[in-house]
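Please, structure for the following, as tokens.
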Amino acid sequence: MILDASDLPDFRPAANQGENAALYELENQALDPDGLVLAAMRARAPWRGRTLVDLGCGSGYWLTRYAGEAGRVIGVEPDPRLLPLAAQRDPRVQVLRGSAEHIPLPDASVDVIHARFAYFFPPGCEAGLAEAMRVVRPGGTLIVIDNDLHHGEFATLLRASPWAAAQGGGSLADAWWAERGADRQTVHSEWRFTRRDDLEAVLRMEFPADLADPWLAAHPESLGLSYRYVLFAVDKAAW
């Protein structure tokens, strides 16, 4: 395995999952516990029996959930720290080294691409969107999962966080996607942990202490927080 991402110039290491994959695993387990986001994605672009790419799959948490339905699942990930974890996640899944602007697949070879909180933080995502449309078949769809900045406890923290200033949500992102033929859907959900210690650790990973600690102090009994997601979907036919 190549342990250098210098030939993937669009790769930007993730400070959360890239630095602490085990803790990010707990975050994945807690987010959207009722599967509302997954259901919305499935309704918008069904993947049963089809070829699905998880673009920026990280440690591969979602790959197994897709593999139970899709005909073929491919994870694409640039981070050399996360690639081995994704590759070991599920024997039904193929994991490839690549990035949003360098997807190692032929033209028109997949039906659905998912990107969760990876790369698509507009503006400046044109090259990755063009690459995704290259590998999607006619009639296929790219679905990007993003943060809503307007509603929910998570959004309140996100708006105040300098760590998240360049990541997702807001009117700029909405306009960028609308100009490119995407439709937008919001999903009201939550984080829900089983242990308070896990919530505290994840919140302190995602936000500076001067934001996370006051929130935790103000919610001493909480095991989660409200969270609204945004789904942007672009069909190959719109391109």
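DSSP finds nine helices and seven strands in the chain. Residues 21-149+165-190+229-238 form a domain with the Rossmann fold fold (CATH 3.40.50.150).
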